Structure formats: structure tokens, C-alpha cells
Amino acid sequence: MNLIDRYISAVAQQLPASRRDDIARELKANILDRLEGFAEEHGRPTTPADESAILRELGHPRQVAASYLPPRQLVSAAWFPFYTQCLIYGLAIVLLIQLLGFGVSLLGGGNASIGGLLGGAIHSALLMFACVTGVFYGLSNLPEAAKISPYCNWKPEQLPPVQHPWQRIKLEETVNEFASNFFLILALQYPLWMSAETLASLPVSASPSLQPWVLPLSAWALFAIVFSLWKFRYNYWTPSTLWISIAQNFCGCLIAAGLANEKILVINHSIPLPVATHINDILYWVLIASVCVFLFWIARSIYWLKLLRNIKAA
Amino acid sequence: MSEEHLEKLRQELRRGVLVLAVLGSLKQPHYGYSLRKQLQEAGIDIDEGTLYPLVRRLADQGLLDSEWQQGDGRERRYYQLSAIGTGLLASLSGEWQTLNSNIAKLLEV
Q1: Which residues in chain A are closer than 8 Å to B77, comparing Cβ atoms?
Q2: Left if phi > 0, otherwise alpha if psi is -120 to 50, otherwise beta: which for A5?
Q3: ipTM over 0.90
Q4: Which residues, other chains included, contact A10 with Cβ-Cβ below 8 Å and sequence gap of 6+?
Q5: B47 to chain A, minimum CA–CA distance in Å?
Q6: A16-46 per-position pLDDT tens digit
Q7: Directed axis angle between helix A17-42 and helix B48-60, to 10°?
Q8: Of A94, A76, A172, which Cα lies nearest the Cα of A133?
């Protein structure tokens, strides 16, 4: 089998059966013409090296075969912006679910490791990527989907009134806030979902002085979760959402400051725990740091409110 | 601007007129290699990897008629404009003339 026939055969393998023979026949005729032209130009017959060079110039058989077929793409240009948006939100949801699962395992005394969290997150993210890409491959290539267009119902009136980059609320901030507050509610309401055996084996438990704070803190965390869901949908700061944020952070600041004066946890000394004797001290400093963070967020929100007022006045 | 960037823009400009150039050349029957030669002599250099699939696509769209012919001991597939292709060429030629004069006015400014 000579080089030309091997090349034609390699191209033909990549073609659908209905078009294979016809294209292969024509391609062979074109290649032989090319070789004939080369021989006339150089005044000598072609050598195997000349044939090889000409075939290389034509291109790899896969590329040549692809040029005879209708163009295909993984995700079309029209769908690509929506595709990247879906991937970003998908990744946020995957990470959120992994964090919440990790939190539940950690609090429930089950197997919870950072390696497990990372492995689970990577596995879920890859699965999400494959599913989303598969859907958009279908939308980009199926004839039935040709009439569907992304963003076909958008209206300029629905665009957010955002003038500055700081007005955009970052997705990672909202995810972090949602996960943290969800974890807090789980921790506060642990008797509701932990089994009696797990409860008995816990090295720490809530002290009586924490009890009056459970309900307001749970309500605050629940409000923060609902506000996070709002920010997922409307991810930009307006004067009203900044006021809500200030009020939320102010309440958080008061609760954290109040809790800092209380002994929050009771240590079960029958179960050895390396940091048992220092846990309330650690919690005290965590709460003081939380107060500082809340005050920073309040100050930042007030600054942004002033900026928005100045923009409006101008 | 780099030579590479300029070459890319030049190719993009030429890509827009390939169909018109091929249809215009196929008022007379040609096979793949002879069509390429004709285009090269007219100053339009197009590589085989682009030309041959393009000619097949135009034939699939009904713009070209084709038939296999024997000559010089080998077979070759000859293409020529179909009736639909002739009509389309006339329309595209008119479109080209209009575009050409509009661009010329813009370049004068």
C-alpha cells in the first residue's frame, strides 16, 4: 500500500460512511494532480520524500476529514457567556453543598477531614462541569435547539443600577456567608438533629448561660441566610440593602459582644480533649474578633452609603 | 502592529471574498487543481485544505454541477456553475460592486 493510499485511507476512516467513498475518490484525484504539477514544476518525477512533504502540507488526516464535514463546536459563541455563568454558579453550589456536608459530619462526630472535603469538592465539580458542558453541547449542535437563544427575553430595565465595581457583591462572599450561618444554626440547634448516642459522646455541651442566646442568635443566622439568598439573586448593593446589612451586622455585633461575657461551653471531663481547658478562652477571642469584623462591615457599609448619596446628589 | 497580526487581518479580508472568487472562476468547468491554479494566476492564493472542501460545500448547496471525466489516463471531477449558481453569482457580483464603491468612499475620507 503506497503512501497516498495510506493517507486517503486515514482520511476516509474519519468520514461518515455515506460520504466516505465519494470524498476519498475526489481527494485522491486532487493529490495526484498536485503531484503531477510538482513534477512539471521541478522537471523530474516525485520521490517518496516529495510525496510525504506534499501530504504534510495538505494536513493531518483528521484535520482534512473535519474540513469536509459541517463545523462542530463544544459550546457555540452565542451560548458561551451563559455557559460560563452556569459553570460559575454550579461551582458555587457544589462548594456550598460540600462545605455544609463537611460541617454536618464535623459536628456529628463523623469522619470529617480536609482531604475528604477537597476530594469530594473536586469530584463533584468535575461531575458538574461534565453535565453542564453536555447540556450546552446539545444546545450548540442539535438542530432542534437552533431556534433557542440565550438571553432572548432580557430587558434593559432589568439591568442592575450599578455604577461602581464595589457595588457588585462577590459570589464567594455570599457563598461564605450562607455556609457560615447555616453551620451556625446547625451548631446552635444540635439537640434537634443529633442522635442521643452522639449527644452523650460529645466532649462539650452548651452551658446554661448560653440558653437565653440560642433563640436570638438562631433568628439572626436565619435572617442572614435569607438575606444571602436575596444577594444570590440581586448581587449588588443599593441603599436599602446596605441599611439591611448595617442592621444585620449591628445585631451580630451586639450578640457577639454579649456572648463574649458568657461561659458558652461546658467541658465533659470524662472525655479527654487536648484543648478542653482552653476552649472557652478561644471562643472569647473568636467573639472579640467577630465584634471587630462586624464593626468593620458596618463602617464599610456606611462609607458605601455616603458614596451612593454623593453620586445621587451629583 | 506585528507582521503576524497584519497577515491574520489580511487573511480575514480575503476569506470574505473566497466564495465570490470561486463562483466567478467556475463559469468555465474546472477540476480542483486547475481551479486553484486559475485563482493563483488571478492573485488569489488559497490553500487546498480550504479550497476543496469549499467547492464540495458549494456543490452540496446546489450552486455547482459536477461530473467525473476521464483524461490523461486518470479521472478528475469537474465543477461548473449550475443555473442557481449563475443567478447567485450575478447577485453577489452586484453586492460586491456596491460594497466596493462604498468602501472606496470611506477610504477617501
Answers
A1: 25-26, 29
A2: alpha
A3: no
A4: A61
A5: 8
A6: 999 999 999 999 999 999 999 999 999 999 9
A7: 140
A8: A76
